[in-house]
Design goal:
By secondary structure, this protein is an alpha/beta fold. It is built from six helices and five strands. About 45% of the residues lie in helices and about 20% in strands. The chain has a five-stranded parallel beta sheet with strand order 3-2-1-4-5.
Amino acid sequence: MYKKILVALENSRADASLLPHVTELARQFHSHLLLVHVADGWVARNFNRLKLAESEEMKADRAYLEAAAEQLRAKGLKVTAHLELGDPPTEILKTAEREHCDLIAMTAHGHRLLGDLFFGSTIHEVRHRSFVPILLVRAGTKGP
């Protein structure tokens, strides 16, 4: 059912809520996990256009993704990792389409209206623009 699951990681504690759920899904469906983090700092957003050097934030994000991928591979799962650059919802959707993902998994933080206005809502954009099913896991919840 889910051959390839895009796992949108934030490089935050919220990821600890999401990873047990996708690990269990991947085991049950023999899915390939595609870990994606979107670096969205100034350097990341202008990296290609201005031909900039990779920022420390981007290096840390890449190392985080690779460490997460290695932990999942150690559990016997098929995992690849991609660091994307730019606007998170746009890059998540482009990657899901390009990689033919069957599911997008993300964490929800439970912001209310004001929180979404101040912090933005990647989930809001992804869920309204995606043609791929989305699994939302509330940050701070324990796995299955």
